[in-house]
Automatic annotation (TrEMBL):
Residues 72-246 form the tRNA (adenine(58)-N(1))-methyltransferase catalytic subunit TRM61 C-terminal domain. Keywords: Methyltransferase, S-adenosyl-L-methionine, Transferase, tRNA processing. Residues 275-300 are annotated as: Disordered. CDD domains: AdoMet_MTases. The keyword S-adenosyl-L-methionine applies. This is tRNA (adenine(58)-N(1))-methyltransferase TrmI. S-adenosyl-L-methionine binds at residues 116-119, 137, 167, 187. It comes from Brevibacterium casei S18. It is an enzyme of class 2 (transferase). Its EC number is 2.1.1.220. Homotetramer composed of a dimer of dimers. One of its GO terms (biological process) is tRNA methylation. Catalyzes the S-adenosyl-L-methionine-dependent formation of N(1)-methyladenine at position 58 (m1A58) in tRNA. It catalyses: adenosine(58) in tRNA + S-adenosyl-L-methionine = N(1)-methyladenosine(58) in tRNA + S-adenosyl-L-homocysteine + H(+).
Length: 334
């Protein structure tokens, strides 16, 4: 295949950029380019200066004779390798949120909570420079980590992104007038507790998207949406991704797959004064007993109860230091 005579300036790798090195076995290493630095592996060294000033897509050979492909990381690569204080929304789910939630250029989007910033990045890319994303986060340390990761990804903090530390139910009315929000994305333990504030902020035809981890959370949110009378019939789903091994005639599904990560629920805001159509249901048997209902809805929903892992203590402080470190490298280069 013929090569272009000139390399576009945007393709040239510069100090301060994150790159991904991939070896022949598919193992990936993400580093930040810095003049004079050296990348170490147990099979040899690569000087950063061998990469700086050259285009992505090249192959470099380390001192041990091992070849590495050089590319800028995709969104998925960045998200899965960035510092995390809380679990991230996986790319397979953020892609569905953006597409099925119709997160479009120019939209005003509210997000709660921000976690480590993975979903915020996807939302910001979807709304574009004319849109706006406002994130709400209960924990200040998570907001700080997300701010660092977002600034790292966009080469600076986006002007159309803001984060408020506090409870969405209390802070949302302070930041947005009724009917001025296009989309609300809820990645929180108890999204059913904020539906009143969300329905007030959403414009007619707007959408609420909830991302929850467990079946009880899914059930409680869906029933709360129906009981509110403010939204269309909610649509609930999950996604699973399975790769394929393709090598000549040896074509088969991979033994491993990305299965359940979370449930998505999407519902549209009805116009004020308009009731949603009732879903036709088949007659059911005896109603659930009070004991069953209490077992399903009782008890506090906590991160520990649903099995969510969150960085704490020493690890959390380390993550806070690492988030946004690429920008520090760029400042040093200047």
């Amino acid at each position: 295949m013929t090569q272009p005579e000139t390399i576009p300036a945007a393709a040239v790798l510069r100090a301060g950029e994150k790159i991904q090195l991939t070896d022949p076995k598919g193992r990936m290493h993400t580093i930040v380019l810095a003049a004079g630095e050296v990348f170490h592996t147990h099979k040899g060294l690569i000087g950063h200066d061998e990469i700086i000033g050259r285009p992505e897509g090249i192959v470099v050979t380390n001192s041990g004779g091992v070849d590495f492909q050089v590319f800028r990381p995709f969104y998925e690569d960045f998200v899965l390798s960035m510092p995390r204080g809380a679990a991230v929304v996986y790319p397979k789910d953020s892609g569905l949120i953006v597409t099925l939630g119709d997160i479009r250029p120019g939209a005003t989007v509210v997000e709660a909570g921000v976690g480590s910033g993975a979903l915020s990045i996807a939302l910001l890319r979807a709304v574009g420079p004319e849109g706006r994303v406002h994130s709400f986060e209960l924990r200040e340390e998570f907001a700080e980590i997300a701010a660092g990761n977002i600034a790292d990804f966009f080469d600076g903090r986006p002007e159309n992104w803001a984060v408020s530390v506090g409870d969405l139910a209390e802070r949302l009315p302070e930041e947005f007038a009724p009917g001025t929000v296009d989309r609300v994305v809820l990645d929180m333990l108890t999204p059913w507790t904020v539906l009143e504030s969300v329905s007030t902020a959403l414009a007619p035809g707007g959408a609420v998207v909830a991302y929850v981890a467990t079946v009880p959370q899914l059930s409680r949110f869906v029933e709360a949406v129906r009981a509110s009378g403010c939204f269309s019939e909610p649509n609930a789903m999950e996604s699973m991704v399975r790769g394929w091994h393709v090598d000549g005639l040896a074509v088969r599904p991979d033994h491993r797959m990305i299965a359940h990560t979370g449930f998505l629920v999407i519902a549209r805001r009805m116009a004020p004064g308009s009731a949603p159509l009732e879903k036709k249901k088949r007659p059911q048997g005896a109603p659930a007993s009070p004991a069953d209902v209490d077992a399903w809805t009782g008890g506090e929903v906590t991160e520990t109860a649903i099995g969510t892992r969150v960085a704490t203590g020493k690890k959390l402080r380390r993550v806070m230091r690492e988030a946004g470190r690429r920008l520090e490298h760029k400042e040093e280069e200047r």
